[in-house]
Amino acid sequence: MFSKVILAYFSILLAVGSQVSAESVNAVDGIDWVGSRVVDLSDLTLGGKEDNQTLFVCRAQWEGDWIPGKARVDAQDGILRCHFQYWQVGHNSTDFEVLVWPSETTSWVETEGSIIPNRAVVSGIDPGNDEVTYVCRAWHGNELIVGKALESFGVCFIAADGEPRISKYEVLVKNAYGVYELGE
Protein backbone atom coordinates (compact mmCIF):
# COMPACT_ATOMS: atom_id res chain seq x y z
CA MET A 1 0.00 0.00 0.00
CA PHE A 2 2.70 2.46 1.00
CA SER A 3 4.60 2.00 -2.27
CA LYS A 4 1.42 2.51 -4.35
CA VAL A 5 0.66 5.78 -2.55
CA ILE A 6 4.27 6.98 -2.90
CA LEU A 7 4.27 6.10 -6.61
CA ALA A 8 0.98 7.92 -7.14
CA TYR A 9 2.24 11.04 -5.35
CA PHE A 10 5.56 10.91 -7.21
CA SER A 11 3.74 10.73 -10.55
CA ILE A 12 1.54 13.64 -9.56
CA LEU A 13 4.47 15.75 -8.41
CA LEU A 14 6.27 15.20 -11.69
CA ALA A 15 3.18 16.12 -13.67
CA VAL A 16 1.82 19.11 -11.78
CA GLY A 17 4.38 20.42 -9.32
CA SER A 18 4.44 20.22 -5.55
CA GLN A 19 0.75 20.79 -4.70
CA VAL A 20 -1.11 17.47 -4.32
CA SER A 21 -4.89 17.52 -4.48
CA ALA A 22 -7.76 15.53 -5.93
CA GLU A 23 -7.75 17.88 -8.91
CA SER A 24 -4.07 17.22 -9.65
CA VAL A 25 -4.54 13.46 -9.24
CA ASN A 26 -7.37 13.54 -11.74
CA ALA A 27 -5.54 15.84 -14.15
CA VAL A 28 -2.88 13.17 -14.52
CA ASP A 29 -5.47 10.47 -15.27
CA GLY A 30 -7.57 12.68 -17.55
CA ILE A 31 -10.62 12.13 -15.38
CA ASP A 32 -13.37 14.59 -16.15
CA TRP A 33 -15.16 15.81 -13.02
CA VAL A 34 -17.49 18.67 -13.93
CA GLY A 35 -19.93 20.90 -12.11
CA SER A 36 -23.31 19.22 -11.79
CA ARG A 37 -25.20 22.19 -13.19
CA VAL A 38 -23.58 21.98 -16.65
CA VAL A 39 -24.22 18.37 -17.63
CA ASP A 40 -26.80 16.26 -19.37
CA LEU A 41 -27.78 13.14 -17.39
CA SER A 42 -26.96 10.96 -20.41
CA ASP A 43 -23.28 12.00 -20.09
CA LEU A 44 -22.87 10.88 -16.47
CA THR A 45 -21.04 7.79 -15.24
CA LEU A 46 -23.56 5.24 -13.98
CA GLY A 47 -22.93 4.10 -10.44
CA GLY A 48 -25.75 1.79 -9.44
CA LYS A 49 -29.40 1.64 -8.37
CA GLU A 50 -31.20 2.57 -5.18
CA ASP A 51 -34.96 2.72 -4.60
CA ASN A 52 -35.41 1.92 -8.32
CA GLN A 53 -33.52 5.11 -9.23
CA THR A 54 -30.32 5.32 -11.23
CA LEU A 55 -27.30 6.48 -9.26
CA PHE A 56 -24.43 8.46 -10.76
CA VAL A 57 -20.89 8.98 -9.47
CA CYS A 58 -20.43 12.33 -7.71
CA ARG A 59 -18.19 14.09 -5.21
CA ALA A 60 -18.78 17.11 -3.00
CA GLN A 61 -16.44 19.33 -1.04
CA TRP A 62 -16.59 18.99 2.71
CA GLU A 63 -14.14 20.70 5.05
CA GLY A 64 -11.90 21.43 2.06
CA ASP A 65 -11.68 17.90 0.67
CA TRP A 66 -13.59 15.98 -2.01
CA ILE A 67 -15.84 13.24 -0.65
CA PRO A 68 -17.30 10.78 -3.21
CA GLY A 69 -20.93 9.79 -3.15
CA LYS A 70 -24.03 8.96 -5.13
CA ALA A 71 -25.98 11.43 -7.23
CA ARG A 72 -29.59 10.99 -8.18
CA VAL A 73 -32.51 13.06 -9.28
CA ASP A 74 -34.86 13.81 -6.40
CA ALA A 75 -38.22 12.23 -7.21
CA GLN A 76 -40.16 15.10 -5.61
CA ASP A 77 -38.50 18.21 -7.03
CA GLY A 78 -36.46 16.87 -9.98
CA ILE A 79 -33.18 18.34 -8.68
CA LEU A 80 -29.94 16.37 -9.02
CA ARG A 81 -28.29 15.99 -5.59
CA CYS A 82 -25.12 14.34 -4.32
CA HIS A 83 -25.46 12.28 -1.15
CA PHE A 84 -22.25 11.46 0.67
CA GLN A 85 -21.21 10.23 4.10
CA TYR A 86 -18.68 11.93 6.32
CA TRP A 87 -17.89 10.29 9.65
CA GLN A 88 -21.10 8.23 9.46
CA VAL A 89 -23.30 11.29 8.94
CA GLY A 90 -25.16 11.69 5.65
CA HIS A 91 -25.06 14.97 3.76
CA ASN A 92 -26.88 16.17 0.63
CA SER A 93 -25.47 18.84 -1.66
CA THR A 94 -26.66 20.61 -4.78
CA ASP A 95 -23.17 22.08 -5.28
CA PHE A 96 -21.00 19.16 -6.41
CA GLU A 97 -19.17 17.53 -9.29
CA VAL A 98 -20.15 14.49 -11.33
CA LEU A 99 -17.93 12.08 -13.21
CA VAL A 100 -18.34 12.43 -16.96
CA TRP A 101 -16.59 9.71 -18.86
CA PRO A 102 -17.65 7.59 -21.85
CA SER A 103 -18.91 4.32 -20.37
CA GLU A 104 -16.86 2.23 -22.78
CA THR A 105 -13.66 3.65 -21.28
CA THR A 106 -14.39 2.40 -17.75
CA SER A 107 -15.23 -0.86 -16.03
CA TRP A 108 -16.33 -1.89 -12.56
CA VAL A 109 -13.82 -4.48 -11.28
CA GLU A 110 -14.65 -6.81 -8.38
CA THR A 111 -12.25 -6.80 -5.46
CA GLU A 112 -12.19 -7.28 -1.72
CA GLY A 113 -10.21 -6.07 1.23
CA SER A 114 -7.29 -3.73 0.54
CA ILE A 115 -6.77 -4.74 -3.09
CA ILE A 116 -7.23 -1.65 -5.28
CA PRO A 117 -7.02 -2.52 -9.01
CA ASN A 118 -4.60 -0.75 -11.33
CA ARG A 119 -5.97 2.40 -13.00
CA ALA A 120 -8.61 2.86 -10.28
CA VAL A 121 -10.51 6.16 -10.57
CA VAL A 122 -9.44 8.57 -7.84
CA SER A 123 -12.22 10.55 -6.22
CA GLY A 124 -10.28 12.65 -3.76
CA ILE A 125 -8.15 12.73 -0.63
CA ASP A 126 -9.66 11.53 2.65
CA PRO A 127 -9.67 14.42 5.16
CA GLY A 128 -9.22 12.04 8.12
CA ASN A 129 -5.85 10.62 7.07
CA ASP A 130 -4.88 12.33 3.78
CA GLU A 131 -5.15 9.02 1.94
CA VAL A 132 -6.24 8.76 -1.70
CA THR A 133 -9.88 7.66 -2.07
CA TYR A 134 -11.21 5.64 -5.00
CA VAL A 135 -14.68 5.34 -6.54
CA CYS A 136 -16.30 2.08 -5.45
CA ARG A 137 -19.74 0.53 -5.22
CA ALA A 138 -21.18 -2.38 -3.27
CA TRP A 139 -24.38 -4.31 -2.76
CA HIS A 140 -26.32 -3.32 0.35
CA GLY A 141 -29.44 -5.42 0.55
CA ASN A 142 -30.90 -5.36 -2.96
CA GLU A 143 -29.29 -2.04 -3.89
CA LEU A 144 -25.98 -1.25 -5.61
CA ILE A 145 -24.65 1.91 -3.95
CA VAL A 146 -21.67 4.15 -4.79
CA GLY A 147 -19.07 5.02 -2.16
CA LYS A 148 -15.38 5.47 -1.46
CA ALA A 149 -12.61 2.93 -0.98
CA LEU A 150 -9.48 3.53 1.05
CA GLU A 151 -6.74 0.95 0.73
CA SER A 152 -5.80 1.16 4.42
CA PHE A 153 -9.33 0.24 5.56
CA GLY A 154 -9.90 -2.55 3.03
CA VAL A 155 -13.60 -1.72 2.56
CA CYS A 156 -15.96 0.32 0.43
CA PHE A 157 -17.71 2.91 2.58
CA ILE A 158 -21.05 3.30 0.82
CA ALA A 159 -23.17 6.42 0.89
CA ALA A 160 -26.00 4.98 2.99
CA ASP A 161 -27.24 5.53 6.53
CA GLY A 162 -24.49 4.74 9.03
CA GLU A 163 -21.88 4.54 6.24
CA PRO A 164 -21.80 0.73 5.99
CA ARG A 165 -18.40 -0.86 5.38
CA ILE A 166 -18.52 -3.54 2.71
CA SER A 167 -15.42 -5.76 2.28
CA LYS A 168 -16.45 -7.28 -1.08
CA TYR A 169 -17.00 -4.50 -3.61
CA GLU A 170 -16.28 -3.11 -7.08
CA VAL A 171 -13.85 -0.33 -8.01
CA LEU A 172 -14.26 1.89 -11.06
CA VAL A 173 -11.19 1.64 -13.30
CA LYS A 174 -10.09 3.36 -16.47
CA ASN A 175 -9.69 0.74 -19.18
CA ALA A 176 -6.35 0.56 -20.97
CA TYR A 177 -6.72 2.45 -24.26
CA GLY A 178 -10.42 2.95 -23.51
CA VAL A 179 -11.25 -0.70 -24.12
CA TYR A 180 -11.79 -3.40 -21.52
CA GLU A 181 -9.22 -6.17 -21.84
CA LEU A 182 -9.84 -9.66 -20.49
CA GLY A 183 -7.47 -10.74 -17.75
CA GLU A 184 -6.90 -7.29 -16.25
UniProtKB/TrEMBL annotation:
InterPro entries: DM9_repeat (IPR006616). It holds the Pfam family DM9. Keywords: Signal. The lineage of its organism: Eukaryota, Metazoa, Ecdysozoa, Arthropoda, Hexapoda. Residues 1-22 form the signal peptide. This is Ig-like domain-containing protein. It comes from the Eukaryota.
